[in-house]
TrEMBL record:
Record InterPro entries: Ntn_hydrolases_N, Peptidase_T2
Catalytic residues of the enzyme: 190
SUPFAM superfamilies to which the protein is assigned, alphabetical: N-terminal nucleophile aminohydrolases (Ntn hydrolases)
Nucleotide-binding keyword on record: no
Record site feature (Cleavage), residues: 189-190
Classification via PANTHER family: ISOASPARTYL PEPTIDASE_L-ASPARAGINASE 2-RELATED (PTHR10188:SF13), L-ASPARAGINASE (PTHR10188)
UniProt-listed Pfam families: Asparaginase_2
Keywords: Hydrolase
Alphabetized GO MF terms: asparaginase activity
Enzyme Commission no: 3.5.1.1
Protein name as annotated: L-asparaginase
Length: 306
């Protein structure tokens, strides 16, 4: 979509999210526009959109974050960046309702990324609202995952020896709860917003509950600058999908660099998606000085507002 002036916002609910969930993305974009029109910065508007997506409960972020393999642990990542030089991220954050607000707070520290227990303590020191724990949907999804995960016929495509997914994760199990107890008890996504403000600033905000199955402490692309998100002089880009693949391509920075070479936004996003095999879920959103767009190789809840 072409943008000639004023505010432009794109939001997404994660690669693979039902398009019917685009109503939440539309609501988040509208909140961001209200913020921008009331004098907020591009970054503040992007954060407002992602807070709305975290609170929605349907998306894999914030209140809707999925559980790790032990069925108990929630680990969340988030990041923000803008064209004024602000950058902040958190990884493996536990116990916080809105990780994107904690990432925004990191921009006010001497650091750009806080992780694990330190990120959690940082959030508590600043008084951010605690998480209410896993949602009913997260619990149901985990039970379903464990039933499928325990199937010995499901080989892990990334394991060179052709072992089942269960065997692969049992080999590297690092949760406090023993593997056997987890299996007996039971038998992937991101949200994001990119903003162009009326004064020409660019910003991005992203948040995720991670993917499943993963080991404790897994970090994907979402909090890594240049991979899950990037802002530069040509625009703002946010990615969603399988982080281990997105990181290898440094996807957000790669797409931004294509913009600098003169490639139109929609073509740059589509070219970024084409870097991946169709079996790898991936999506992109972006804004530039004159365009706002999204692209994905899966269904993806999203909304473009100009």
């Amino acid at each position: 979509m072409q943008v000639t002036n004023g505010v432009a916002i794109v939001t997404h609910g994660g690669s693979g999210s039902p398009v019917e969930w685009s109503d939440g993305c539309r609501h988040a974009a509208a909140l961001a526009r209200e913020q921008a029109r009331s004098g907020a910065s591009a970054l503040e508007a992007a954060v407002a959109a992602v807070v709305a997506l975290e609170d929605d409960g349907r998306y894999n972020a914030g209140s809707g974050a999925i559980l790790r393999l032990d069925g108990k642990t929630l680990e969340m990542d988030a990041a923000v960046m803008d064209s004024r030089g602000l950058l902040g991220a958190v990884a493996c954050l536990q116990g916080c309702k809105n990780p994107v607000l904690v990432a925004q707070a990191v921009t006010r520290t001497p650091h750009v990324l806080l992780a694990g227990e330190g990120a959690g303590r940082f959030a508590r020191v600043l008084g951010f609202e605690a998480s209410a724990g896993p949602s009913r949907a997260a619990l149901d999804y985990h039970a379903q995952l464990m039933r499928a995960f325990a199937d010995p016929e499901q080989a892990d495509p990334d394991d060179r020896e052709g072992a089942s997914k269960a065997d692969v994760y049992k080999r590297f199990w690092n949760f406090p709860t023993p593997w056997d107890e987890v299996v007996k008890a039971h038998g992937s996504g991101t949200v994001g917003a990119v903003v162009r403000s009326a004064d020409g600033q660019f910003a991005v905000a992203t948040s995720t509950g991670g993917s499943a199955p993963t080991l404790l402490g897994r970090v994907g692309d979402t909090p890594i600058a240049g991979c899950g998100y990037y802002v530069g002089e040509h625009g703002a880009i946010a990615a969603t999908g399988v982080g281990e693949y997105i990181v290898r391509q440094m996807l957000a920075r790669t797409v931004h660099d294509w913009l600098g070479q003169g490639l139109p936004l929609q073509q740059a996003l589509d070219r970024g998606i084409a870097l991946f095999d169709r079996s790898v879920s991936v999506g992109l959103i972006g804004v530039t000085r004159d365009a706002a767009a999204s692209s994905s190789n899966r269904n993806m809840a999203a909304h473009v507002l100009t």
